[in-house]
Design goal:
The structure holds 2 protein chains of 2 kinds. Chain A is α/β, with parallel strands linked by helices. Chain A is 36% helix and 29% strand. In chain A, α5 packs parallel to α6. Chain A is elongated, with a radius of gyration of 22 Å. Chain A starts with a strand and ends with a helix. In chain B, α1 packs parallel to α2. By secondary structure, chain B is an alpha/beta fold. Classes of the chains: A alpha/beta, B alpha/beta.
């Protein structure tokens, strides 16, 4: 089963939850799709890493053949091309590698070349396979790297996808093949608003989803209220806990260090499995 | 000589818009004829690359100078390639900025920011 862990904002606890679920599953794949700032490897500490470069294609314009007709500039919906003084300027970080400019060029003045934008690392922490996507600093689009990570994910067994924060293209790519989405949210108004955004997203993608409340205190919990109001199953809550924080901040895995969290994440995984199979059985 | 200024509204009384690439309008001012035209920025709503497309619009107007509080690196690359000079706007209306420009009281905009790509987007 593929479980995507996501949140509308950074720092809500996606990596904490995804890493600890992988540990609870014992034999699993942990896929870090937060390619702008992958940090699951700080906890799982994979060994024998292998790296593979991820490349995209970008256009090369032949100035000898180019007649400055501007059709490529007008075609590019990503605005990666500009026409200045009869010359085409390319902004390769904005280019989405669609190849359209090459197709519309009447002079056949455009060909393609490969450009590396980052890499995918794979290694192991015991029985857990760790896949880490790394986008080079300064690059705008991480989607091609996420695609490469997900290609390496096996079709069988437990897979935990640590998604990027927010609800943009990179998150959509990360949850595309997920069987279940676990939404992690903080007990704040800001947390609730971001939760609403990703709830809307997973609903649009028709994914079964559940809510995990993190950093829970005795006070009001706007994210919990959201879950209750929107019939979003609440699968558990993690308290605002100094001990957990200290273990996590030291780069250690709480379910390996603190027995009560070992039990918590095992039970959470069982609840997710039950919820997901229920969704499949009812055809929802 | 034509000068472009990003603007929220189609009037010279408006303040200079804080964004270059995503300004709703540009004032295109002709210093010779003392006339102002308002150009709608069709790039303002772009998902990405607004700076590049907006700069292209300005370049196509045969503008020689831009008065703006800031400019992203992609937009700056386009306008600088076209030989357009960037000047830093001062507080006050577009009209007072144009006056300051004509009296050569504006300084060249040196700092180019890396862009605010994807921040706050959903």
């Amino acid at each position: 089963m593929r479980i995507a862990v996501l949140s509308g904002k950074g720092g809500a606890g996606k990596t904490l939850v995804a890493v600890n679920l992988a540990v609870a599953a014992e034999k699993a794949v942990y896929a870090d799709c937060d390619v702008e700032e992958p940090n699951g490897h700080l906890f799982l500490k994979p060994k024998e890493n292998e790296s593979e470069s991820v490349e995209v294609t970008i256009p090369v314009i032949d100035p000898e053949k180019c007649t400055a007709c501007r059709q490529c500039v007008d075609f590019c919906r990503f605005n990666a091309l500009a026409m200045i003084a009869g010359k085409v300027m390319l902004f390769d970080e904005i280019c989405h590698s669609c190849g359209g400019c090459q197709l519309v060029c009447p002079e056949k003045a455009i060909h393609e070349r490969k450009r590396s934008i980052g890499m995918v690392q794979s290694g192991h922490d015991g029985e857990i396979k760790v896949l880490t996507g790394i986008l080079n600093t300064g690059e705008a689009a991480g989607v091609p790297i996420i695609k490469e990570i997900l290609k390496k994910v096996p079709t069988e067994g437990n897979v935990f996808i640590d998604c990027p924060p927010g609800s943009a293209c990179s998150v959509m790519e990360s949850i595309q093949e997920a069987d279940y989405c676990l939404l992690v949210a903080e007990p704040t108004i800001f947390g609730r608003d971001n939760l609403a955004m990703i709830h809307e997203l997973v609903t649009l993608f028709d994914k079964p989803a559940g809510l995990l409340l993190n950093k829970v205190t005795d006070g009001e919990n706007p994210s919990q209220m959201y879950g209750l109001e929107h019939n979003l199953p609440i699968l558990g809550e993690i308290p605002y806990d100094r001990e957990l924080s200290a273990v996590n901040a030291a780069g250690n895995i709480v379910s390996r260090e603190i027995p009560k969290y070992k039990n918590f994440f095992r039970e959470l995984l069982q609840r997710i499995e039950k919820e997901a199979s229920h969704e499949t059985n009812t055809g929802a | 000589m034509k000068v472009a200024v990003p603007s929220e509204h189609q009037t010279l009384n408006a303040e200079v818009c804080s964004s270059f690439g995503r300004a709703p309008f540009y004032v295109i001012y002709d210093t010779k004829n003392k006339t102002a035209e308002y150009l709608q920025n069709t790039a303002a709503g772009s998902q990405g690359g607004a700076g590049v497309q907006a700069a292209q619009l300005i370049v196509d107007q045969q503008v020689e100078a831009i008065i703006t509080p800031r400019c992203g690196k992609n937009a700056a690359a386009v306008v600088q390639e076209a030989g357009i000079k960037l000047y830093r706007s001062i507080s006050g209306s577009i009209e007072s900025n144009l006056k300051a420009f004509e009296e050569q009281r504006l300084t060249v905009l040196e700092e180019i920011h890396a862009g605010f790509h994807r921040h706050g987007g959903r």
